[in-house]
Amino acid sequence: QRLRALFQYKPQNIDELMINAGDLIYVDPTQQSDVSEGWVIGTSHRTGCRGFLPENYTEKAHEADTWVKHREYVFETASRSFIKTEKESNVKLNGEAHNLSTSRSVTNVLPLQNAALRRGVLVMHHGERVDQVFGKSWLQQCLTADGKYYRADLNFPSSLPRQKDSMKQFECDPPLSCCGIFQSRLIGEALLDQEVTVSYVYSSPALRCVQTAQHILQGLKLNQKVRIRVEPGLFDWTKWEASRAIPNFMTVAELVEASYNIDTSYRANFPLSSLVPSESYEDYVSRSSAVIKQITTACPSKAPLAPFFAFPGVPGVILIVGHGSSLASLTRVLAGLPSRDSRDFAQVVQKIPSLGMCFCEEQKEENKWQMVNPPVKTLTHGANAAFNWRNTILED
Amino acid sequence: QRLRALFQYKPQNIDELMINAGDLIYVDPTQQSDVSEGWVIGTSHRTGCRGFLPENYTEKAHEADTWVKHREYVFETASRSFIKTEKESNVKLNGEAHNLSTSRSVTNVLPLQNAALRRGVLVMHHGERVDQVFGKSWLQQCLTADGKYYRADLNFPSSLPRQKDSMKQFECDPPLSCCGIFQSRLIGEALLDQEVTVSYVYSSPALRCVQTAQHILQGLKLNQKVRIRVEPGLFDWTKWEASRAIPNFMTVAELVEASYNIDTSYRANFPLSSLVPSESYEDYVSRSSAVIKQITTACPSKAPLAPFFAFPGVPGVILIVGHGSSLASLTRVLAGLPSRDSRDFAQVVQKIPSLGMCFCEEQKEENKWQMVNPPVKTLTHGANAAFNWRNTILED
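YS: structure for the whole thing
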């Protein structure tokens, strides 16, 4: 077993191992019998030294990491060179200056054989929603006296999509904040950077999820190629988000009208009418379990070589944009793990940040899935408070 | 005096006024004598009703707001039509879908006469810096065993600028995080949206400030037109940020090499060599006072009609990107207010968020400045925590 150090660790005892972030550490499973909880005995690839190290300072290393240092071989396929061309004309969101020293560390190299042969399911939490920052009254803060939308803070979106009913429907189906758009775009760019092949995209019908999927696809430069399948069966546990009534979501026609890249030919497994307010936990678990099985069945491991598929012949990744609950309810069942009880479930879901993600990889045996590290890193940032210059700077 | 309601307020007493966000309220200063602290008596333009309202639910309304409802007249000048052309080809950072209902509320209309006649000084706090999120050891978290930069979290920049010395110099002069880049770009776009004419840009020599200025200019689509003047006199109180030694800032040549738009002909008022570690508060106050006077003197109210100025003949806004301390130390002296004592100063500076800003407008009498509402709204967003899928989702 090989680990990669995430952080530096300086030994505090003579029998401990010095590690730097990025170090590879070899761990012999047969030698771990006398080791206390949270520690492992390992040998550093860099120094050749051996000693105890804290396991939570490390992650499981990709198999590829142990050999790409010596020789790097790229499997050139049609789909890969296609992505390359796209990337060269890519203007990054963060718009950084051009003459930067680009240090491509070994960790950026994906195990390409795996990427080419195995299917993956990437389940993601949507980005920051406006009511998360501005509270339930966010829409009131943004309406002028004559009922027009007005951007009361720069983190509100510059406008709201047009829809048939009153603006009030967004109260139960809030959009992403600008920060949520930034988060989604950044994740899409990181997936592109890691050359992750996203072949299918599914989204909960909640506007924030469709928007997250759209901005991830834009970051991936796939927004013209892969269309979003809106699946009501992916909506949150209705006891939380729809205790009295299912929100009046934007229809597929309205989403298309608002320039979202929706797969209009997709037939949902769970039509909207099948969602019931305040469903029981058991109903939610069985809906989630059914929908993930239907999705993995509908996205075969070898897609037909047809021109309307973005990446013919490459199984690639199925991206599912849902809610915090989706990470707990979709991935464990796929990996063959039992579902949690409803109290644990609620506690787990609270901890899931914006764009938090879980990744399941199909094993050699078809329809056997295992949870592994997602193809991109975490996204961690701070909060920003509103600033009142008058109270803070002007007044004494 | 006219106020604009920022939030809805529902009366809790018979003598209070119902207000909605966006409402205009007329306040007669002669009628406020019997009003308790924090309240005003006003008349709602929308309802015609009169009553008490909480003052902190409102902001001072632009003079223009009271008449643009009836008739809108745009002063067409060379510089304005120039901006318009730029804007039409503008692809927004947040990349929103095209067919959105664009509701241009009255608050978007600037009092253009003012913009055309008066100078403004906009002092801004830089964006989120990496060490603010990841702590002092941020660089250690990002270095591989062989000393190469590696993006350990997606909020770290994708690469660091090249500079002459070791990467270690960034420990004392940290760059923006990706979130900081997002914040800066958003503010630049909002300034463009409000058609604010930025004629001069000054920055502290700290990398995070130069980067913030660069991304604001990109958001403004001015990065090819207005160059950044790096002024060491704008650096933070050295007692806080340079207690032992002045950081080894990137040189102007290095910044240019890294594609930052630097005004290489600019001669600093305070050369780097004049900064001393751990200066006294009095020295900091007098440095700040000198530098803001030198800047406003160097940017005349009527710039010469020469082709190398972006906006000939339009005084416009002087943008100063500095530190939290800059907002407190530069604007009060410009507005003729006494400086705070050092303890109050420290407390005030702590409250200033990323991209917090203060705006001073020149009065009819030249070199008389008054603090007024900045031309764009605040930016408020939440934090995002790192996510450990293994502990949260996989393990029981």
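YS: worth flagging: Chain A has a mean pLDDT of 82.
IM: good catch. Also The longest helix of chain A spans residues 281-298.
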